[in-house]
Amino acid sequence: MSPSLGKGVCIARVLREKTEGLKEYRIEIRGKKYEAMYHTKPFIIGGHK
């Protein structure tokens, strides 16, 4: 849980050759499927540099 955002966040390793050009994914966490999105921006603007 992110105290700054007030919701859960996740970091995942994804094989580049299987996801080339995709920005939205379906992932499975503990048996449940979720929508996920690829981001390159920081979680919070003005955070650690």
Task: List the keywords.
49 residues, mainly beta, two-stranded antiparallel sheet
Helix/strand layout:
Elements: H1 16-19, E1 24-29, E2 32-37
Antiparallel strand pairs: 1-2
How does this structure look, described?
With 49 residues, this protein is mainly beta. Helices cover 8% and strands 24% of the residues. It is built from 1 helix and 2 strands. The protein has one helix spanning 16-19; strands at residues 24-29, 32-37. It has a two-stranded antiparallel sheet. The longest helix has 4 residues, at 16-19. It is flat and about 30 Å long. The mean pLDDT is 78.
How much beta, percentage-wise?
Answer: 15-25%
Q: What's the SSE pattern?
A: HEE
Which structural class do the helices and strands define?
mainly beta
Helix content: under 10%
Mean pLDDT: 78
Q: What is the number of helices?
A: 1
The rough form would be described as flat
Number of strands: 2
Query: How would you name the oligomeric state of the polypeptide chains in this document?
Result: single chain
What's the N-to-C terminus distance?
A: 21 Å
